[in-house]
User: Fold this.
Amino acid sequence: MTIETNPDGGRGGSGAMFDRIAPRYDLLNRIMSFGLDRSWRRLLVKNLFEATREPPSERTHWDVLDVATGTADVAIAIARAYPKARVVGLDPSLEMLSVGHTKLAKEGLTRRVSLQEGSAEALPFKDAEFAASCISFGIRNVPDRLQGLRELARVTEPGGRVLVLELNEPEGRFIGPMAKFHVHHVVPRLGAWLSGAKEYRYLQESIAAFPTPSAFAALMEAARLTVESRLPLAFGSAHLYIARTQD
Ligand SMILES: C[S@@+](CC[C@H](N)C(=O)[O-])C[C@H]1O[C@@H](n2cnc3c(N)ncnc32)[C@H](O)[C@@H]1O
Assistant:
């Protein structure tokens, strides 16, 4: 078992809430995003390294950090896409990590991906320890987002990429209202019905409370990250923020 627990038992953010939905999380993700969540994660993985700045080929491995790894979908996708990657997935929810560990064992990836309990605001890693880092559908749950982003910048080597994938209130005059209806009315009801848990109300509320894409990009800049691009997905209901740490 490669799940490391935090000795001080720190369970930041809403890790406890995710403990309750962990067994149904992957299935509900697929259903509620119409299967799009997988392609969004693939896009993140593809952009983890700038084509011209891939870590030097003479390195035996590249360390990559996936914060708020949950059930480890992104960590697994990174390990599959980059055979030289050694991935650390970190999350405060032991139940989510446990589902992730079962998947790693099935994929034969337990030697290249390790899972660790912890919170984004206090990453238990040295400065510049990772060639790249990311957080997918996680920063929304981090109580102190600026501190979480500062930590991602700190542990990533100078010039390395830091990627954030996150949902926000849908934009746009035509599709926006339909997407908003999906998030505000369909997701909480479908989530409650399929999972028997009221936690899917939180999903809608946390999306509504998340900053606009330009305000979030400004927060990334405040954390000393240079935002290179911001890709709207699904008619602007999610964004991939591609940034790099300052050299
Ligand atoms: C919606 S899930 C995303 C999981 C995964 N990254 C994915 O793409 O499916 C959000 C995750 O954020 C984690 N989380 C909550 N608070 C956190 C914190 N303070 N630091 C790091 N992760 C946190 C939760 O435990 C949960 O696993």
User: Anything to note?
Assistant: The CA atoms of residues 224 and 246 lie 7 Å apart.
